[in-house]
Amino acid sequence: MLQNIIPPRLKSLLAKRPQSFDGPWRKRALFLCGFVLVLFVVGHLGIRFIVWPQIEKSKASVERLISARIGVDVAMDDLRVSWTGIRPEFELDGLRFNGPDKSRPLLQIAKIRGELSWNSFYHLAPYFHELYFEGAQIYAERDKKGLINIAGIATHGNSNDYGFENWLLAQNEIEVNNVEIFWSDQLDKKLSTSFQIQNLVLINGLRSHKASLKTTTPWANGPIQVEANFVHHLGGQAGNWRDWIGNISWDVADLNLSQIAKEFTLPLHALEGKLSSKGKLKIDNGQPDGGVVFIAADNLVIQLAKNEDGIALGRLETNLTQENDGGLISVTTKTFAWRDIDSSKTGPLENLSPMTFAWSPPGSDGEIKEFRFSSPKILVEDVALFALNLPLSKKVHQWIKASRADGELQNLDIRWSESKSSLSSLNIPGGWFKSNKLDFSISAKLVNLGFIGIDKSMPSASNLSGFISADQNQGSFSINSSDLEIEINDLLVDPKIQLDRANGQVTWSKKKGNWIVNAKQLALSNPEIDTTLNINYVIGAAKKPDFMTLDMDFAKADLATAYRYLPLGMGKEARQYLSKAFTAGTIQKGSLHIKGDPNGVPFPNSGDGEFTLNLPIVGATFYPVPLLPSNLGVWSAFSKVNGVLAMQNSNLKVDISKANFKDVQLSQFHAEIPNVSAKQLMLSVNGNAQGDAPQMLEYLFASPFAKKQNKIEKNLRVSGPINLDLGLKIPLSTNDDTGVDIKLDLTGNKAQWANLPPLENLKGKIRITEVNPEFENVTATFLGGTLNIGSSPSAPGKQNFNITGAITANFIKDYLVKTLNNEASPILEAMSGSAKYEGTLSFNKTGSETNLKFDLRNWASAAPMPAKKLMGTPMTGQVLFKTTTSNEGSANRFSWTGKFGDLYTVQGDMNSNDELRYALGIGAPANLSQTGFQMNLASNELDMDAWLDFFGKQKQQSNTPPITSSETTSVNLTAQVKKLILFDRIWQDLNLSASNKTNAWQLRINSPLIAGQIQYQESNNANPSGLVSGNLSRLKVPDEFTPVIETTKVAQKTNVVVKSKLSPNSIPSLDVTIDDLNWSKAHLGQTKLKTKTSNNLLTIESIQFNNPQSNSITTGQWIGATPNQAEHSSMNIDLDVKDAGRIIANWSSQKSVEGGQGKLTANAEWDGSPFSPKYETLAGKVNLNLEKGRLLEVDTSGAQILDVLSLQSLFRFATLDLQGSLGNIVSKGTPFNNINASFDLSNGLAQTKQFTMSLDQARVAMVGQINIPKQTQDLRVTIFPTIDATAGSLAAFAINPIVGLGALVGQYLITNQINRNLQSDYLIQGSWDKPEVIPLDQKGQPIDNKTLNTIRSKDLLKEQSKPSPNNAPTPKPQTQAL
Question: Which chain regions cross the lipid bilayer (predicted)?
Answer without folding.
Answer: 29-52
